[in-house]
Amino acid sequence: MAAPERLAGHTSRVVEARTGAGGRRGLSLATREALAAYLFILPSFLGFAVFLLVPMVMSAGLSFYDWELLRPPFFVGLQNYRDLLVDPLFRRVLFNTAYYAFGLVPLNIVVSLGLALWLNTKLRGVTFFRLAFFLPVVTVTVAVSLIWKWMYEPQVGIINAGLRLMGVSGPNWLSDPVWAMPALIVLGLWKGFGYNMVLFLAGLQGIPSAFYEAAMIDGATAWHRFWKITLPLLSPTMFLAVVLTVISSFQIFDQAFVMTAGGPSNATNTIVLYIFQNGFQFFRMGYASAIAWALFAVIFTFTLIQMWLQRHWVQYD
Amino acid sequence: MMQAPVRVVSAGTSSRLLPTLLRTVSYLALTLLAILCLIPFVWMALTALKPENEVMTNPPRWLPSVLAWSNFPRAFSFYPFGRFLWNTLLVAAAATVLQTFVAVLAAYAFARLRFPGRNVLFMAYLGTLMIPQQVTIVPLFLMMRATNLADTYWALILPSAFHAFGVFLMRQFLLTLPRELEESAYIDGASRFRVLWQVLLPLSRPALATLVLFTFIREWNAFLWPLIATRTLEMRTVAVGLTLFTGQYGTEWHLLMAAATVTILPALIIFALAQRYYIEGIALSGFGGR
Fold first, then answer.
1. Residues A210-227: pLDDT tens digits?
2. Does residue A182 contact residue A104 with C-beta atoms inside 8 Å?
3. Under an 8 A CB cutoff, do B275 and A276 touch?
């Protein structure tokens, strides 16, 4: 933050040179610069306050009320949070969401890192491969969820048809409580690995080739170079990728809503889907708000844990 | 450009035959993976072009016997899909314009002007990025209901136009521009707004392109909020509209896949044309565009 401060003073001097000391209307230059700044920020801040800050405060407040929309709300203190602790369905959706996140994140990191390393080997046509691997990231989640639902179709879907060719009889994927969540994880992997791959590619481009050349002179094997150079220098990127992928995995909703509606028998019900059901199907506004803050607490906790863990494996310099 | 570690090693350890072989295998394997990755899109397009009686065959057949282009108009009359497309286009475009405009103005103040509370306010913006969007949806729904804005374009546009990400991205970019560029304009007596508009913005095209792309694609793909904020069929967006095809009378897969193709195409075309900005944006910000 030091550089902008210094430079800001610089502009003030330039402006001073233009208008002469004192300026118009007797306001000091610093005051006029501040006023201008507030004017520039005003449109953004108004929207930010009305559509982000106020709803956040309201949501926190609502979580202390029992409110079924058509009846008047009444204050219940921490009751919603106490209910959450003993709600078996909430425990279930918490478990399901964690299952999804911890199933998906390691797969995602391994695949995206592996492909980034592969594409970084001076191949021709990197643009084409990058495009192919990245396309799922920018396509409408609802649309691709429906495509995969069609592919997972047990009788006429192409996934089980492919398995039959290999002599395996595939499960009923989305209607099997055991296989429904793995099916969502596979879709999540396909939809998301391209993003981290691009992140890793950018990180790899930032590693100076001199390091590899020096290691090669010392006779280090490719395996050694990966563990001693690539991985340590890539660890800040890796940290970012892991944190962001965990956060977005905990917010899974579209796929679960579209493909299984949380079923069969809540096997794929997730935290956000549970917020939706409580808020907009049962109209329990207070309880839905409490679940939303529980989601925040979960995400926040895992982010803090990772911030703490990073001291042991991320190298900055 | 960095040296390719893998290639250098193989060149150093063996004759020229092995590297060529490795390279060929490498290409083949990558191409196979790329094809595997694109199969869902291919299967979508093929299903969209099949006559109704060829959709549900066991084993599934890849190619349609005739190209049933009529699935597309049929999908559009099955539900008012043209209307969904128009709604989504309008909402995504309006939210993008609004987001870009307010973000640029605020980012300029954060990057270039000194004022009391600047760091605290910027930290507040960054802090909201930590809060999941789902925390605000219940109060937003209640606000829209109370102001009679529910089920209107405003309800879809406004809440998504003030995301802190835009301010963050533009500020980071403006900080990389040298100040000397603006000084002569200030000395010539140009106002701050004019300097921003005529000097800084033309130089910010890559960041602007990234922000526009991220915002448009995010809005085009949005699902949870449009699902909550709209009620009538006329106000639905494409993402919500697609789910209607999986109705209680079983799914018309060929029509659904035709609609899905039309839904996916705009984002695909925009991305293919401007992928450079998208990818640079990920590298610049480290997040966003997910």
1. 888 888 888 888 888 888
2. no
3. no
Report yes or no: B62 and B46 within 8 Å, Cβ to Cβ: yes
C-alpha angle B235/B240/B243, rounded to 5°? Answer: 135
Distance separating alpha carbons of residues A78 and A83, to the nearest angstrom: 9
ipTM, 2 dp: 0.87
The pLDDT of residue A284 is 92
CA distances from A196 to A97, B29, B111 (A): 20, 20, 29
Region of poorest pLDDT, from B43-52, B55-64, B113-122: B55-64
Q: Is the pLDDT of residue B283 over 80?
A: no
Please tell me the pTM assigned to this model: 0.88
Q: Give the pLDDT score at A214.
A: 87
The CA distance from A154 to the nearest CA of chain B, in Å, is: 10
Nearest-angstrom CA–CA distance, A238 and A232: 9
Closest alpha carbon within chain A to B37: A133
Contacts of B267 (CB under 8 A, 6+ apart): A138, A139, A140, B217, B220, B221
The CATH classification number of B77-285 equals: 1.10.3720.10
The single residue listed with the structure tokens 């055991």 is A178
CA distance B117 to B273: 41
Task: Indicate the pLDDT class of residue B83, thresholds 50, 70 and 90.
Answer: very high
Q: How far does B16 lie from chain A, in Å, by closest CA? A: 17
Which residues of chain B does CATH 1.10.3720.10 include?
77-285
Nearest 5°: the CA angle B101, B106, B109 is 135
Contact A120 B4 (CB under 8 A): yes
Smallest CA–CA distance, residue A104 to chain B, in Å, is 16
Domain A81-313 class?
mainly alpha
Under the banding of pLDDT at 50, 70 and 90, the label for residue A24 is low
Question: Is B178 in a helix, a strand, or coil?
Answer: coil
Yes or no, beta carbons of A59 and B44 under 8 Å apart: no
User: In the prediction, which pLDDT does B268 show?
Assistant: 81
Give ranges for CATH 1.10.3720.10 in chain A. 81-313
